[in-house]
Specification:
- It is a single chain.
- With 262 residues, this protein is of the alpha/beta class.
- It has an 8-stranded parallel β-barrel, surrounded by 7 helices.
- The longest helix has 23 residues.
- The model has no long low-confidence stretch (mean pLDDT 95).
């Protein structure tokens, strides 16, 4: 039986309705489960740059599903059938595929995520069968595929990428996209205008193709701005980032309070 959470999330994304998610880089299923219960539409595990191996990905997806409210997604480590198939077999509702440069790259990702006759995905749904059932067509119906736009070629070809049959959306990696347009470092103010122009282009390409447009954000406030500017789903920060920020804030508060009392 297909998971109601997976079905609803797939419907929302394909209808270009707004969704807000959270980013996980730590292999910490207990904290991931708590975040998944906070009310986000989806929680994404980072298997590319995050500190998560296969076991961590599997346990993270189980933790997300335990909350029964958020969809579990995975940014796979590379655009290849093995990485994509393992994430989906572990139970991911959607995959975010990095370093997509062309429409051909996007088509390859779609093929790897879909069963025959629409793709080349190997049949072996070790855990996903518990969530979407063992029937390939049912699995395909709730499997989402997103292509990351984060390279000079990806930006140049974004219209063709977004129009790739079977692709559910594009997803901006803002740090890499900033470097792609000439930034010395992510957030470089010298390229702010050209970066913003690139963001507009990506959102417009997705809208023209009728697919979702997603983007990563450092804060909830920035996520709200992106959603208001044409993006349809937005991810907030990461668990590691928030852990550090919160720990520092409490340390500073304790020291300031202690000094004032003294």
């Amino acid at each position: 039986m297909t998971s109601p959470v997976a079905t609803e999330f797939a419907r929302k994304i394909r209808a270009r309705e707004r969704a807000v998610g959270y980013w996980i880089v730590l292999d910490s299923p207990v904290s991931t489960e708590r975040i998944a219960r906070a009310g986000y539409d989806y929680v994404a595990l980072d298997a590319q740059h995050g500190l998560i191996g296969y076991s961590g990905m599997l346990h993270g997806l189980m933790a997300i599903d335990a909350g029964q409210t958020a969809a579990g997604m995975v940014r796979v480590e590379a655009n290849n059938p093995t990485a994509i198939g393992k994430a989906l077999d572990a139970g991911a509702v959607g995959i975010i595929v990095p370093l997509v440069n062309t429409a051909e790259d996007a088509a390859a990702a779609v093929r790897a995520a879909k069963y025959p006759p629409h793709g080349d995905r190997s049949y072996g749904p070790m855990r996903s069968a518990l969530r979407v059932g063992p029937v390939p067509a049912e699995a395909d119906a709730t499997t989402l595929v997103f292509a990351m736009i984060e390279t000079p070629d990806g930006l140049e070809n974004v219209e063709a990428i977004a129009a790739t049959p079977g692709l559910d959306g594009v997803y901006v990696g803002p740090s890499d996209l900033a470097l792609a347009v000439g930034a010395r470092f992510p957030g470089d103010p010298d390229v702010a205008e050209v970066f913003d122009t690139a963001l507009v282009r990506v959102a417009a390409a997705a809208e023209a193709a009728g697919v979702a447009a997603g983007i990563h954000n450092a804060t909830g406030e920035l996520a709200a701005q992106r959603l208001a500017s044409g993006y349809t789903f937005a991810t907030v920060a990461s668990d590691l980032t928030h852990l550090e920020i919160t720990a520092q804030a409490h340390l500073e508060a304790a020291r300031v309070t202690a000094d004032s009392i003294a």
